From TrEMBL:
Family named by the database record: Belongs to the CPA3 antiporters (TC 2.A.63) subunit G family.
GO molecular function terms listed in the Swiss-Prot or TrEMBL record: sodium:proton antiporter activity
Membrane association type: Multi-pass membrane protein
Residues annotated as transmembrane: 6-35, 47-68, 74-95
Pfam families, per database record: PhaG_MnhG_YufB
Record-level GO cellular component terms: membrane
Signal peptide: none
Name by which UniProt lists this protein: Monovalent cation/H(+) antiporter subunit G
Localization per record: Membrane
Keyword Transmembrane helix: yes
InterPro entries: PhaG_MnhG_YufB
Length: 125
């Protein structure tokens, strides 16, 4: 191996390690947020934002490892990343909308709810 190939492998391994560490930290922070946050809306925020990015970081690291070390292009990993980026925000939106329609209020006292105002305007018109 030449010196540039060795340097390339070192840089790629550092990127893989950083991606796994950042992804693991985001997954850990998502799980802490689910336990610590007070209402369903903030818990959903923690569950979807941090866990989506955390799992994406780990899957990207796995994809990079397989591609660089073993010359394998894993379509399953790419599909998992794509599926996760599509379904997590949609499912969080549906759950929060169902909670809102059920009448669950956020913990924040001074809030402005555009959806409630919209529903009231429809009733009055």
């Amino acid at each position: 191996m030449t010196e540039t190939e060795i340097l390339f492998h070192i840089i790629v391994n550092i990127l893989i390690i950083l991606s796994i560490l950042i992804g693991s930290f985001l997954i850990l922070s998502a799980s802490i947020g689910i336990v610590r946050f007070p209402d369903i809306y903030t818990k959903l925020h923690a569950a979807t934002k941090a866990s989506t990015l955390g799992l994406a970081g780990v899957l990207i690291a796995a994809f990079m490892f397989l591609y660089i070390q073993h010359d394998i292009v894993s379509g399953k990993l790419l599909l998992a990343i794509l599926f996760m980026f599509i379904t997590n925000p949609v499912s969080a939106h549906m759950i929060s909308r169902a909670a809102h329609k059920k009448g669950i209020k956020p913990v924040i006292k001074n809030r402005k709810d555009a959806y409630e105002q919209y529903k009231e305007n429809i009733k009055t018109n």
